Here is the input.
Amino acid sequence: MDEVLEFLRFCYDNLDSDAKKVCFLYGALYPEEYDIYIDYLLECWRVEGFIPTDESIHDKNAFRDARDKGHAILDDLINASLLDSSEKRKCVKMNKVLRDMALKISSQIEDSKILAKPCEGLEEPPNHEEWKQASRISLTDNELCNLLEALECRDLLTLLLQRNKNLCAIPEFFFKSMCNLRVLDLHDTSIESLPSSLSALISLKGLYLNSCSNLVELPTQIKELVQLEFSVVIDSSKQSWYKIVETIATEVASLEKLTSLQFCFPKVDCLEIFVTTSPAWKKGSCLTFQFVVGDHDSTYFQILKSFEYPSYNRLTLVNSEGVNPVISKVLMETHAFALINHKGASRLSDFGIENMENMLVCLIERCDKIKTIINGDVITKGVIECLEELCINNVLKLESIWEGPVHPGSLTQLTTLTLTKCPEPKKIFSNGMIKQLPELQRLRIEECHQIEEIIMQSENIELESSSLPRLKTLVLLDLPRLRSIWVNNSLKWPSL
Here is the structure.
């Protein structure tokens, strides 16, 4: 064991920047072997100031530059055996030996002392002196019912209190001395509101309030958090949230430095309030977002996270009607779009196919009016050229994926196509659509009881034997009327 510790300390000492060293130490805030969501970790690193920034880069390019640098640091730590890859996608973790070493090192650095007591079953918070000495505190996954009132925490930079499900209230003056706090995570607690002392957090850049299902109000002082830029995270499906969401949307919209936002808008009108009043939105798309629009439960925030895609902006439209111009406006900046239980639109292109140039992922589910996804008869050029994944599920009236001519360039980046529980379509690849799919790797057709042909011979004349050159996975399940994939054995399927 001594040799292992000596090797790991050697790896730490040989990191070529202080930024990488402090990023490693930050991992000790989480429990050993705990799956740390990578995007969240990079956000914390950024707002803490660990990731070097290029002052010449502005707006959304600055965000992506920081993200790329963060991933580079993460890769270096993994390659140096100082962080472990997780079996859980998009996560990393720190084992017990590494975490113990990180805590020991941080205790020896004057301005990096960590108070980390996650998953210890704490019912009472640490004492005043422990709070005073720490630069970063993690009390996650405990049984805390209350917090101390009068604290002296001027050196505190990160405070993690997430998943203390018994924590219902925060003392009125709790934040009063935390003028240097940069990261505050209260997600999945039972708090109903935040105290007015929130205004003391003049350095706060990252605020996490997701899954706070009892949250019914935010103080008007949130407007005073002028540095807040990265991830105001708010979502709730309770009726009490619906009563105050317009006010909160207006307050959040006033945050000029906001660069990342996750928010549920129970009505399209609430989204419109944000889009039309937010300076951050108007700054040339520097805001990254994860929006759920429509009456829903909290699980809809997780839907698009299940996809493998390098996306930043997600929009989920649930239980809505018609096509509102503000949705089309947000779609122009959207990389992943989920349309669920929508009423009124008969095709995806009703939302304006020209607004989908940046779309990488599209999920369509339980939209009973949709008969086709794209109407090629009203299009004169290639469209959705960046789309990589298309998933269609339980769309009862769907007759075809594409209607009319398929113009060159359309769908050329599509790698995954999934069609499940759609009882009406009889064909998949029609109108020469298959010729536009050189990158298709995964095709899954399931419980589509009218499907007779995967590739229609009559609509794919002169089909080349090298079509679908990259197809690696073909899954066909519960298709009782299926007669053929292709009329003969001429297709080579070189990757299958």
Observations:
- The chain is about 20% helix and 20% strand.
- The two ends are 47 Å apart (CA to CA).
- The mean pLDDT is 86.
